[in-house]
């Protein structure tokens, strides 16, 4: 039932109340009329729904039947990032919380290489079983660039830790170590002593079961830590706006 028909059916002199039964229709109507890109995927990462803004943002050709399609089946530049996008879907479903990434590819009808922010929110049935994810997109605009934005190219930046092995403080050090900062520079960035950073790096190496910088870098690439950015560093260290 459309919103217009619903208004006709009910006495509009009464106060309209939002009910659980009506919530689904309201959500679809909200996405249909939104200028923000919205989409829904099932628990296999097959597309179920995209609004018009979502079709335009993803630069999906007119007439392309997207329902039931996987990311890699789309005739779009961002399809090459399908494995990382799919991993984000599973992260949201298994963690029971929003999973966030910044995806850089050729977006919009102008096919411009630019970063977009995508939070994925898990959807569950009444029994708590995963049905899929709902997501929206916002263009990520920045005023000053940090090292990891210097060479803009199709990529995925994860805002959620890809592994649960490390503490938040250890992840902070891993991030800066991957930027090739020295222990002394990392200590300055994090307002820590040089000895504290060295001790934490040693513990990180032990958890990774490596004993060299080459092994550290290989571990980070294998476990997608090279694409991870702590959200607090984005908010505190880079001038940007959505």
UniProtKB/TrEMBL annotation:
Q: Which GO terms describe its biological process?
A: regulation of DNA-templated transcription
Q: Is the keyword DNA-binding in the record?
A: yes
* Residue stretches making up the HTH luxR-type domain: 159-224
Record's Gene3D superfamilies? Winged helix-like DNA-binding domain superfamily/Winged helix DNA-binding domain
What molecular function terms (GO) are annotated for this protein? DNA binding
Give the signal peptide, or none.
none
Q: Which InterPro entries match?
A: PAS_4, Sig_transdc_resp-reg_C-effctor, Tscrpt_reg_LuxR_C, WH-like_DNA-bd_sf
List the Pfam families: GerE, PAS_4
- Keywords attached to this entry: DNA-binding
Q: What is this protein called?
A: Transcriptional regulator, PAS and GerE domains
């Amino acid at each position: 039932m459309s919103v217009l028909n619903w208004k006709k059916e009910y006495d509009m002199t009464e106060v309209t109340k939002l009910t659980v039964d009506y919530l689904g229709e309201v959500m679809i109507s909200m996405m249909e009329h939104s200028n923000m890109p919205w989409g829904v995927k099932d628990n296999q990462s097959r597309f179920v729904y995209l609004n018009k803004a979502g079709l335009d943002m993803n630069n999906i050709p007119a007439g392309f039947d997207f329902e039931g399609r996987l990311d890699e089946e789309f005739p779009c530049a961002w399809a090459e990032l399908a494995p990382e996008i799919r991993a984000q879907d599973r992260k949201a479903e298994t963690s029971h919380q929003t999973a966030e990434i910044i995806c850089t590819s050729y977006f919009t009808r102008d096919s411009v290489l630019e970063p977009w922010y995508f939070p994925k929110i898990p959807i569950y049935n009444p029994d708590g079983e995963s049905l899929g994810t709902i997501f929206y997109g916002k263009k990520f605009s920045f005023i000053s660039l940090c090292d990891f934005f210097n060479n803009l190219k199709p990529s995925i930046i994860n805002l959620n830790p890809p592994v649960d092995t490390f503490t938040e403080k250890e992840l902070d050090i891993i991030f800066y170590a991957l930027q090739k900062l020295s222990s002394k520079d990392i200590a300055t960035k994090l307002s820590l002593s040089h000895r504290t950073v060295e001790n934490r790096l040693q513990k990180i190496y032990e958890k990774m079961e490596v004993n060299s910088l080459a092994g550290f870098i290989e571990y980070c690439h294998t476990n997608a830590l090279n694409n991870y950015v702590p959200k607090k560093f984005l908010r505190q260290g880079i001038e940007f706006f959505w």
